[in-house]
């Protein structure tokens, strides 16, 4: 496919996205060419725009695409077909020979670009999804269920995959019917609440913002949290202890980069509790070493779920009707994204509708 396409790109850090015309990327032998129908915006995109990831500019942002395959490379294996509805994870093009690739190959025959030392990261370091077309790695591409729209599918490729991956990290230490809290009910957190309920956890939603606490309740009845807590309230710690029968939380997933919120979250864990922090603060996390040692607490890192894990996630999404609270914008509104994202009334996920 040749010609030009509409795109948005970052020209300078901390400056609004600029709309432009770019050549349609050429589909290589090992690529899938995707017509992007919807693309999401999340906090990591904001950090990219701020220059936190030292990205080479200009670059097309967004790492949450959903769309349709329009071309399949001649060497691509599998059952991919033109017209398939897909979502695409941001990591791609594993080298197959570095230490990260070798370690994964000992566990699975399928390549997993997440830990490749030379991987590309669409929307972070390389061109992403704010464009009419993009290239995808078949090993990081997932079939989109018919019941999931492009607009709903897009945020699941990062926010959903991140929330799902973090909750799976609680196992095996934290089992069904144990008490798990989600801290920070934004784009990732309100999906994490729904996933936690679907996995059978007694679920607590925690946020110091009324908008976040309200968002936790704007989900189907069967996915609503069992308890909603204002972390800034004087009785927040007491409420969590009472709800957990004085045992403390078994697990906690923290969906904010606030150093203070992460430090507070660790203190809410009971003996042998597990914490999964998802934010990436500019400064370092600060955790209480005595609490970690004397209560034998565990802090687990979590990147984003693998393609195989995301397939399972989509089965859960379809079964339990899990969905994001969306604000959908047109392509021409991309330059106003950051202003909308930073507004106090913003909740849920921002998604750009790129194609019908």
Low-confidence spans: pLDDT under 50, at least 5 residues? Answer: none
Tell me the Rg in angstroms. Answer: 20 Å
The rounded distance between the terminal residues' Cα atoms is 19 Å
- What coarse outline follows from CA principal-axis ratios? globular
Task: Describe the largest sheet.
Answer: 7 strands, mixed
Count every beta strand, where a strand is a DSSP E run of 2 or more residues.
Answer: 17
Structural class: alpha/beta
**Mean pLDDT over the residues:** 94
| Percent in strands | 15-25%
Helix/strand order, N-terminal first = EEEHEEEHEEEHEHEHEHEHEHEHEHE
Helical stretch count? 10
What proportion of the residues is helical, as a percent range? 25-40%
Structural features:
24% strand, seven-stranded mixed beta sheet, alpha/beta, 356 residues, single chain, 10 helices
Would you write up a description of this structure?
27% of the residues lie in helices and 24% in strands. The protein has 356 residues and is an alpha/beta fold. The strands form four sheets. Strands 3, 4, 5, 8, 9, 16 and 17 form a seven-stranded mixed beta sheet that branches. The longest helix is centred in the middle third of the chain and has 19 residues, at 150-168. The radius of gyration is 20 Å and the shape is globular.
């Amino acid at each position: 496919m040749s010609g030009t396409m509409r795109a948005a790109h970052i020209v300078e850090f901390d400056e609004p996205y600029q709309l432009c015309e770019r050549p349609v990327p050429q589909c290589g032998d090992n690529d899938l060419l995707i017509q992007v129908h919807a693309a999401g915006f999340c906090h990591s995109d904001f950090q990219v725009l701020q220059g936190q990831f030292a990205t080479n500019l200009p670059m097309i942002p967004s790492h949450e695409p959903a769309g349709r395959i329009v071309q399949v490379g001649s060497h691509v294996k599998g059952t991919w077909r033109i017209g398939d509805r897909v979502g695409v994870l941001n990591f791609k093009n594993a080298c197959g020979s570095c230490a990260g690739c070798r370690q994964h190959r000992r566990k699975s025959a399928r390549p997993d670009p997440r830990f490749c030392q030379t991987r590309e990261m669409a929307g972070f370091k390389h061109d992403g999804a704010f464009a009419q077309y993009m290239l995808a790695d078949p090993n990081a591409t997932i079939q989109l269920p018919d019941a999931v729209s492009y607009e709903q599918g897009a945020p699941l490729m990062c926010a959903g995959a991140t929330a799902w991956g973090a909750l799976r990290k609680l196992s095996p230490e934290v089992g069904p019917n144990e008490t798990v809290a989600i801290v920070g009910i934004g784009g990732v957190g309100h999906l994490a609440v729904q996933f936690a309920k679907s996995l059978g956890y007694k679920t607590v939603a925690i946020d110091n913002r009324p908008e976040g606490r309200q968002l936790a309740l704007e989900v189907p009845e069967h996915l609503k949290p069992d308890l909603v807590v204002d972390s800034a309230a004087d009785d927040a710690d007491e409420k969590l202890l009472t709800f957990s029968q004085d045992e403390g939380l078994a697990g906690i997933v923290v969906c904010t980069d606030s150093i203070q919120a992460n430090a507070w979250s660790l203190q809410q864990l009971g003996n042998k509790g597990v914490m999964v922090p998802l934010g990436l603060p500019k400064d370092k996390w600060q955790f209480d070493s005595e609490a970690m040692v004397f209560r034998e607490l565990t802090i687990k890192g979590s990147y984003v779920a693998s393609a195989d894990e995301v397939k399972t996630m989509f089965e859960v999404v379809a079964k339990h009707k899990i969905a994001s609270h969306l604000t959908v914008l047109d392509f021409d509104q991309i330059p106003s994204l950051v202003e909308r994202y930073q507004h106090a009334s913003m909740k849920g996920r921002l998604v750009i509708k790129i194609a019908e």
